[in-house]
Amino acid sequence: MGVGPQEEPVTWCPWSDTMKCKQYGRLKSALSSPLCERQGRQSHGMVILAAAFILTSLLIFCGSNNVIEEVYSNFHVAINNAPGTTNLKKWPWKGGYVPVHGNKNMSLHCHHCALVTSSSHVLGTGAGAEIDRTQCVIRMNDAPTLGFEADVGNRTSLRVIAHSSVLRVARKMPEFLHRAVGNPVVIFWGPPNKMGKEANGSLFRLIQRVMAYSKLSCFTIAASKMRRFDNLFHTETGLDRQKSHSWLSTGWFTMVIAIEICDSITVYGMVPPNHCGQPKGAQKVPYHYYKPRGPDECVTYTQHESSRRGNHHRFITEKQVFARWAKQYNVTFVHPSW
Q1: Which CATH number fits domain 103-334: 3.40.50.300, 3.90.550.10, 3.90.1480.20, 2.160.10.10?
Q2: How far is residue 205's CA from residue 96's CA, in Å, rounded to a whole number?
Q3: pLDDT score of 52 more than 80
Q4: How far is it, in rounded angstroms, from Cα 274 to Cα 299?
Q5: Does residue 113 contact residue 135 with C-beta atoms inside 8 Å?
Q6: What is the pLDDT of residues 35-49, one digit of tens each?
Q7: Over the chain, what HEC string results?
Q8: How far apart are CA 140 and CA 258, in angstroms?
């Protein structure tokens, strides 16, 4: 054992895996460490909230992989139909957002939105000031602003978060809470049995407890609307999401939500669908701007697009749909422009 504070012995652990039990012990120890006692009252509460969020999330996610796949695969629509179009401005399912607390409505509407992707193509653009001048700024998952303000800005009006990113978001919860300006909106999407209020889902209860003392307006996507997202994918691509072994990306959910609430949209950092097939597309850039040692973007896109084993995102297929939507819904792509 290394030098330093000893971990509290774990007398009970829900897993047989030694590494998971060690993580459990460290998190449990963090809740009662002297560091927590030395913080002020507000910091103390923040540390406990964040630690509780991480601990509960770890319990949920380590035991729910099969459940997530089962429930998500239940959203089944017909196969082999030709691609069509849907007028999202007249989409009857603009609602379908369930408040985590109270009876709030998701009433956010903006004349112009900046949708900031998590791609490394935003780095070096110096677009931060321009983004912050936009009426509403939309971000995804755990993409940070701290340390990247010059390129991605600082403001956030809406953040769309996948069920699979909740644990990572939990680790950055103090940043999101302390840096929140105004009353930003957070929308979580995921399997209804985990995220659904009606089903009293475990993730919904967790988010409900942790967000109780924040000034974020939090919503989850209702099960009925989750099915509509699947149907929309089928209508626009001709692909059955389940039989094509596809998982919708957070980008898919975010783009649809942005079209719902924004009169016009500027998307920062999203490449065109043919980018990775071009000679210049061979330039290696990390998939996420905040993970410089992460996987290459084009490798990630092409591997997911071509794989037929397991479930994968169809990033390039989605971008083909986005290109068509851009002509319908006043969407502009910059850095790169296309």
Answers
A1: 3.90.1480.20
A2: 18
A3: no
A4: 13
A5: yes
A6: 334 444 444 555 555
A7: CCCCCCCCCCCCCCCCCHHHHHHHHHHHHHHCCHHHHHCCHHHHHHHHHHHHHHHHHHHHHHCCHHHHHHHHCCCCCCCCCCCCCCCHHHCCCCCCEEECCCCCCCCCCEEEEEEECCCHHHCCCCCHHHHHHCCEEEEECCCCCCCCHHHHCCCCCEEEEEHHHHHHHHHCHHHHHHCCCCCCEEEEECCHHHHCCCCCCHHHHHHHHHHHHCCCEEEEECHHHHHHHHHHHHHHHCCCCCCCCEECCHHHHHHHHHHHHEEEEEEECCCCCCHHHCHHHHCCCECCCCCCCCCEHHHHHHHHHHCCCCCEECHHHHHHHHHHHHHHHCEEEECCCC
A8: 12
Alpha-carbon distances of 7 from 20, 21, 24, 39, 217, rounded to whole Å: 14, 11, 10, 20, 37
- Taken in order 20, 24, 25, 27, the sign of the CA dihedral is positive
Work out the mean pLDDT of the chain and round it to a whole number.
78
Q: What is the mean pLDDT of residues 231-257?
A: 91
Token pair 């459990």 is at which residue?
A: 24
In whole angstroms, give the CA distance from residue 288 to residue 116.
12
180, two tokens: 């929140």
Distance CA 127, CA 152 (A): 6
Q: CA-CA distances (angstroms) from residue 60 to 56, 183, 295?
A: 6, 28, 26
Q: What would the pLDDT profile of 145-177 be if each residue is shown by its tens digit?
A: 999 999 999 999 999 999 988 878 877 777 776
Which tokens sit at 306?
Answer: 């071509």
The reported pTM is: 0.75
Q: How many Cβ atoms from other residues are within 10 Å of residue 33's Cβ? A: 15
The whole-number pLDDT of residue 173 equals: 74
